[in-house]
Structure formats: structure tokens, C-alpha cells
Amino acid sequence: MTVAKEMRVVKDVTCPFCGVTCDDLEVHVEDGKIRDVKNACVLGKDTFLHHLEGLATPRIDGKPASIEACIEAAADILARAKYPLIYGLDSTELHAHRKAIELADLIGANIDHTSSVCHAPSLQAVQTVGIPSCTVGEVKNRADLVIFWGANPAEAHPRHPTRYSVTVKGMFTPQGRKDRTVIHIDVRRTPTSRMADTFIQIKPHSDYEVFSTLTALVNGHDLDVSEVGGVPLQEWRDLVEVMKGAKFGILYWGMGLTMTRGKYLNVVALLRLCQELNRFTKFLGAPLRGHGNVVGMAQVLTWQTGFPFAVNMSRGYPRFNPGEFSVADLLGRGEVDAALIIAADAIGNFPAKAAQHLKSIPLIAVDPKESETTKVAQVVIPAAQAAVAAEGVAYRMDHIPLPLKKVVDSPYPSDREILDRIIARVLAKRPDDGAKRAAPLPRG
Amino acid sequence: MAKSFILITGRTTKQGRTIHLGKQAKDYIDEVSALEMNPADMEALQVKEGDRVRLRTDHGSSVVRCKKGTVPPGLLFIAYGQFVNALVGPDTQGTGMPNTKGIEVEVEKDDSG
Predict the structure, then answer these.
(1) Are A95 and A223 found together in one domain?
(2) Residue A375 confidence class, pLDDT cut points 50, 70, 90
């Protein structure tokens, strides 16, 4: 007798890979395994197709253990820690974010997430000067000038150009690509340059200078120099005319601005340029966000604590200070004495010295898959992968929340359930916590 | 002889795809250890496509393989991964963000093996 295979197609699935957060995927499932994915880019497709490769296993000190024992061991570490860190949270969903913040509040932890090492300088710039911005839907329907600066969406956000910004046809852009001028500005040619009408190659570390030049030109000042950023001044004059002549311009920027010298000041200069252009036309700016749901974590952290990243709860109320409570600095200075890394591979992505400190302290890793972090963690708790084996909510790069579906089953609990169970066990170990936290805090 | 360059890190499609195979997978390691260099710079360093070069900063060093690229002279590109992490320092100038792009590196041919 042959057993009938379970075959089903799940429609309108949301992809968790990048901040484009495509919500039109069609996933074909056969006997609990994903066999095919329609509509996704290659990055999204591989996220689903390889969902069973390299799965993590529950263990304590390298030895197999039950999930319950792992949660107990994690709670032990966190209840005892004096200055713990909770970090990661990009590859998970909103309810797990809420639980992670609740846990940070309970144990007085530092809480930071992957934004800290990607678009945190953009968040700081927005705090400094504000942002004229819009959703991707407005870009699709209205933008006739799209500039990508220090960004490579052709490789990092493959469907952004086809869904929202380059070839897509919209209400006031009925001819799609023909109705848009696309400009790419970067220190090197990339596949994004090939999508553009014009590519302007600038020298590394010259972004701030170029933005300042463009702002001066927009304001009617001319400059007594022949070139800026390695580009003849006339080219910048021409660009300013194109920007002022657009009906609806958008400047998308990437980590070419945030990870390089100047950091948030580059983005401040960009946003000021966009603001000045609004004296002539509609001109907006937006960061190309996302690995995973980084935008979601910044949203949840902001609505719960008032700050988008690098938050410290050790005094019983949230404090924000990049450079002090940001993950690279906390680890680089060797300050934290225990860490919970969830839905991110900290050790695989951090500067060597920061990773070294993580290896020297009690470390808990919650992840669906093995990583450089799970390899060395004292406690490894495998989770059901959000958007694949656990439902939830993700934020698209323009701050629109979208539902994540559970497409297949996992033998492991979701991130939110794991965090909830850790919280319950920490509370059981520190019964006086609730009472202490209700008491008024001393001044200072 | 060592030569100074500016190193840019970033995403590539192949890095994004092969990461799902695991960070020990050959395809992933091949992608994140490939250093794009301008052909004129390769000639000056006397290295060919596939040759090993050592990158060095104040924070550490890494050995990677050279690949002809479209980067301008003086600039190098490598995909995010463990090879570049060794070169990045933890200082963030109070911003939280380490210097992950525009890193000043010394490059020399590696004949050690």
C-alpha cells in the first residue's frame, strides 16, 4: 500500500529575507518539506528551499539536552548575570521582539539588534534632522526620479526595482521604466549601475562633501572648485537641475553611507539635501533596509522604550546611548558578563575583538540553524524559523507591518515561546523582582 | 611588497544565496573569500586571478583569493563574511557602527602555502 503524499500550495506568503518583504510568494509543500517557491527572488527562494539545511540541535555545553533543560540553563545564566546583553532579533517577528524587550526589562539587560551594525546611523540622522519620506507604494505610483546612493538593490533587494522603484508601472508612471530617470551614485560599479540611466562614480569617503556641494548648488551658490568627490563640478550642476526638474524624486541610500567615515553625518547631509529640494519639488529620502525584520525590531523597541536601538535597562528604565550601549562597543570593551543572541549570528558578523568577548562569557544562542554563534554557545536552543515554521508580523522597509505565515511545522518552539518560557523561569528564580520593580527608583 | 588600498565590504547575490547552505559550505566560503581587485593593481602586485593575498589592518589580517573586478584602481571589494571580520576594529566613534566600509588595508602576495 502506498501512503498518499500531502501536497499543498500556500499563497500570499511573506518573505522574511530582506526589507522589501514581498508578500506575494507561493510556496509548494510536499510532506512537510518545501519543494518550490514561486514569485520570490533567488534570495527569498533559497530562504525557503533550504529551510531544513544545517538545523541547530538543543544542547548544553555541547551535550544534547531537552528544550526544557536548555531553557532552565538559559534562565540560570540570565538570572545571575550583572550586566547582560540581549542581541539579534532581525530574523524573527514582532511578538518575539516584544518578549525580548520584556526579558531585557526584567533582568536589567542591554538590548540591541542588527540595526546597530547596519542602518543605526540612519536612525541617528533621522533623530537629528527628521526625514521627508513615503511608502514604497508612493514611489511606485509617482516617482519619476529615483536615485540609489551607496546602495546595491540589484543584489541586496532584488525585487525592489521590479516591485516599487524602477521597472514597475504605477498610477502616474504608466510606462514603468520609461517614465523614470534612474541614477546610481557609488564608489564602484555594481549590477545596480546597469539598471541606471546614469552612474556617477565618486571617491571613497567623499559622500559628505558631495551632499554639501549639491545642497549649496540647490540653494543657488556656485563653488570655486573644478571637481568634488573626483567628479567634475559641472556633473553635479547637471544633477541638481535633474533633481529640481523632477515631479517626484526619491533618494534611496544604503550602507555605503552608514558604514563609512562620517556615519550618521553622511545621512544628515543627505536628508538636508532632500529637505532643501522640497523648496522646488517633491523630494524624499528613504534607507534601503533589511536583512530580515530589522525595521520591525526598531519599531517595537521605539514604541516600547522611546529609542530605536542600543537601549540599556540596568536602572529599571530605558536609557539610549550609541557608543555606550551599542553592541559593538559593549563587546569591544568587554563589558557584558552574559549574552543571549537570538535570530542572528553575532559571532559570524562582528569585528574579531567583539566576537572574542562573546566567546569568553556565558552565551545562549537561540536560532533555527547552526551558526558561528551556536558553535561556541554554552546553551543552544533551536527555534521554529519565523515566516517559515512560525507565524508573526514583519515590518517592510517603509514601516508597513505585514503578516508572516507558518508554512511548515517545526519540532521546536517559536522564538516568542522560548522567550516566554525563559521569562517564566527567570521570574521563578527571582521571585522578589516583581515587587522591586514596582518600587520608586532612587534619583540619579 | 605591501601596497595600500581602501577596502569596501558588501552584499552579493551569491553570498545571500549560499548563506542558507551554512557558513562552512564551500560555495559560501569561496564567495566571501574572493577579493575583487582592479587588473592594473593585480599587475602591480604581481598577482594573478586565484592567487592568495594577505590583507592587513591595525586590527588583524586575513588571507583571501584575488579576482579581477570592475572596481577602480586603489579600491578593493569583498563580500561580508568571516574573512573581513578579522580586519575590522570595534571602535565606532560613539555611533555604534564599526568601520565596515572604506577600511584602509595593506595588501601583499601570500606565498605561505
Answers:
(1) no
(2) very high
Provide long-range contacts, Cβ within 8 A and 24+ apart, for A300-304: A300/A94, A300/A97, A300/A98, A300/A101, A301/A97, A301/A101, A301/A111, A301/A113, A304/A98, A304/A101
Q: How far is B63 from chain A (nearest CA, A)?
A: 15
| Minimum-distance CB partner of A121 among B77, B88, B95 | B95
- Do A15 and A387 form a contact (C-beta atoms < 8 A)? yes
Contact A156 B23 (CB under 8 A): no
A260 and A328 share a domain?
no
List beta partners, residue B3.
B107
In total, the C-beta contacts within 8 angstroms joining chain A to chain B are: 147
Residues A328, B98: C-beta atoms closer than 8 Å? yes
DSSP A316: S
Q: List the single residue in A309, A348, A349 with the smallest CB-CB distance to B96.
A: A309
C-alpha cell at A152: 546595491
**Residue B101: which of A256, A322, A370 has the nearest Cβ?**
A256
Please indicate if any CB of chain B lies within 8 Å of the CB of A117.
yes
Of residues B22, B60, B101, nearest to A54 (C-beta): B22
pLDDT beyond 70 at A432: no
Domain with residue A432: its CATH number is 3.40.50.740
CA A239, CA A217: separation in Å to the nearest integer? Answer: 10
- pLDDT value, residue A436: 55
Residues A167, A297 within the same domain: no
- CATH architecture, range B3-109: Beta Barrel (2.40)
CB atoms within 10 A of CB A163: 19
Query: A63: Cβ–Cβ under 8 A, 6 or more apart, which residues?
Result: none
CB A192 within 8 A of CB A184: yes
Residue A444 has pLDDT above 50, yes or no: no
* pTM for this model (two decimals): 0.95
pLDDT 10s per residue in chain B (113 long)? 789 999 999 989 889 888 888 888 899 999 999 999 999 999 999 999 999 999 999 999 999 999 999 999 999 999 998 899 999 998 999 999 999 999 999 999 998 86
Domain ranges (residues) in chain B: 3-109
Q: To probe the interface with A, which of B32, B83, B97, B100 has the most A CB atoms within 10 Å?
A: B97
Which residues of chain B neighbour A54 with C-beta distances below 8 Å?
A: 21-22
Looking at A287, A316, A336, the residue that finishes a domain is A287
Inform me whether the pLDDT recorded for A270 exceeds 70. Answer: yes
Tell me which amino acid residue B16 is: G
User: Mutation test of the interface with chain A: which of B31, B85, B95, B104, choosing the one with the most A Cβ atoms within 10 A?
Assistant: B95
Contact assessment for residue A297 and residue A113, using Cβ atoms and an 8 Å cutoff: yes
pLDDT of A440 > 60? The answer is no
A70 touches chain B (CB under 8 A): no
